[in-house]
Amino acid sequence: MRIIDLSLPIDEQAFEVHKVEIERTSHKAGVEKFNRVLMGKTLLGLIKYALGMRIVKKEDLPDEEFLSLEVVHSPVHIGTHLDYSFHYGSKTENRPSKTAEEIPLEYCYQDGVKLDLTHKKPAEVITAADIGAALKKINYQLKPLDIVLLQTGADKLFGGPKYFSDYPGVDISAIDYLLDKGIKIFGTDTMGIDRPYRFMLKEFLEKKDAKYLYPSHFYGRQREFIHIERLANLEKIPATGFKINCFPVKIKNTGAAWARVVAILD
Asked: Global pTM?
């Protein structure tokens, strides 16, 4: 069995639109933070701490090291993640939208299918015709619950500004095609399923028509679907013959959740 990592990290050093911060407490500094937090729970403790008293000293610890601690401040849309209907709007199919912890887990471990769409350009969208042609090329017919991965190659731009500006979007016709085949989850190696901001905003400002803003995301209000954003390394897997594991982290009341997405090959 081989396991191929298809995920991107949460990385505070990478270029991001939203702020990402990871507070890192080292092994050496950990004991001081431990004392500060524990003694800071009472006024008397704070006073004793300020006077130099410590409950645990570094000399009390093996190698004079405590435990490391990292605190991550990040939107749930940074790193590889699954979007569910609450992200798209308050209602989906005329009922309250569902949050990420409600994603059915049985959808998240299924046969995977990779479609090569690396010929699509940033200003373009992946259409139903593109999906059909890619399936014909690999001689595969979709079955319900397959997890379909759309390979554009945009993951190679991760870490810089072009990751947010040079990738194709996913057309509503492609979403309909997949949903009509019984697909519950599809994913892409781009940062989003709609075209980059520079194209959407330009057309919106020129034509003053809201249909140019996030059409694929907003379509999730009409038809329920789950999609994965920020996949990576799709060139490392075959078109078929593998399982996808994309279980989301259980976070309460969010429209998306991080996932360590992997392909499992026999």
From this structure: 0.92
